[in-house]
Amino acid sequence: MKTQTRWITRILWTVGAIAGLVASYAIAGLIGGAIPSNAGWRAPSTGVHIFVESNGVHTGIIVPKVAAGVDWRGVARPEDLSDPRFAGYDHVSFGWGEKTFYLETPTWAEVKLRTVLGAAFGSTRTLMHVDHLPMPRAGDGAREIVVTPAQYRRLAAYIRASFRDGGSRYRGYAGYDAFYDAYGRYSAIHTCNSWTGDALRFAGVRVGWWTPFPVTVTAWF
After folding, report:
1. pLDDT tens per residue across span 107-131
2. Positive or negative, the Cα torsion across 137, 138, 142, 147?
3. How many angstroms separate the CA atoms of 54 and 13, rounded?
């Protein structure tokens, strides 16, 4: 009886410890996302129009294919798509994430616990996800941001540096997207949303100090 009680106590302690860890992580993330970096930034009246997109779990950055001296057509190439016709769209979105999670979960119904835990504990196998798409409209799940040409070029430099030189490319989920090997280590600390926040922060845009969750990015715009 005492042995059984000890096991129950250990299980309850373990569950409580995990719940406390998850709660602490959530609270820390929300606090980090509420602390502004580049606090003095203000959107210019004219400039390059970019967008932050979110599906409620993952965020990415949408930019024009050609603007302010930056041309993405050499990176987001028609031949990398299963349907090259989508390369005719004038915007492209960039997202960063863990390779297994990206390639093995085309829909949320296919998410596996081991994939989530593997990514959370850390993985150096990361990808850039690139979508070819038209300019977003209001209600498309994207927040519009205006940046100066200089800020946009800094943002573009950060995005470009995330692509692994000489890396492989992989077909996407549909005819309009593709994946590319990336630099960086994914973890619960540095998530896909952290990458989005880091890119905007590097460009000089006001955003949260640490942005592990979608809301810690999108709440600023």
Report:
1. 555 555 555 565 556 688 999 999 9
2. positive
3. 36
